[in-house]
Amino acid sequence: MKxxxxxxxxxxPHLVPVGAPADAVLIxxxxxxxxxYFELLIRRYNGALYKVGRSYxxxxxxxxxxxxxxxxxxxxxxxxxxxxxx
Length: 86
Prior knowledge:
With 86 residues, the protein is mainly alpha-helical. It has a domain at 30-78. It is 51% helix and 0% strand. It contains 3 helices and no strands. The radius of gyration is 14 Å and the shape is elongated. The termini are far apart. The mean pLDDT is 84.
């Protein structure tokens, strides 16, 4: 675990607009073939996920790699999503 300082700013948190579809709705759309909705989920959680990675002391590039891995894993597991988790 490398904790070198860097000049990269955290991604700006994406505020969910009032009336925006819930995660469960977006996931249902993605599972029905509308894969472009996955970008909305990524934008919704990008800032928070980045902050978690940095809070563990990981360098910017490492956090970016971990986020990409997390999003790929999340996409592959969408079929297992339980609506009670939203």
